[in-house]
Amino acid sequence: MKLGEIEQEALALPDRDRASLAAKLLDTLPSPASYVSDEEVEQREREMDSGRVMAISHQEFVRRVQEQRGR
Fold first, then answer.
1. SS3 13
2. HSE of 62 in the Cβ direction (CA atoms, 13 Å)?
3. Tens digit of pLDDT for each residue in 34-68?
């Protein structure tokens, strides 16, 4: 069976079955590398509260990442 056929079959399923299938498929994928633990979030909050680090906007973050990647 080809991917297009599988997609058509899956899209024809009732909502509940599509959701179940999607969850099962997602469980087979590797975890994203961007996982951040609760402890890291708490540490970063403490650093901001103490003034050791300053928050930047999302736009500034994207600009810096692109700059570092040479874009």
1. coil
2. 3
3. 788 999 999 999 999 999 999 999 999 999 999 99
Give the Cβ contact number of residue 65 at 10 Å.
10
Which of the 8 DSSP states describes residue 51?
T
Q: Where are the beta strands (DSSP E) in the chain?
A: none
Give the integer Cα–Cα distance in Å for 41 and 45.
6
Q: What single letter denotes the amino acid at residue 39?
A: E
**Nearest of 7, 1, 5, 3 to residue 21 by alpha carbon:** 7
At 21, list the tokens: 């299938």
The model carries a pTM of 0.45
Nearest to 11 by CA among 25, 26, 24, 22: 22
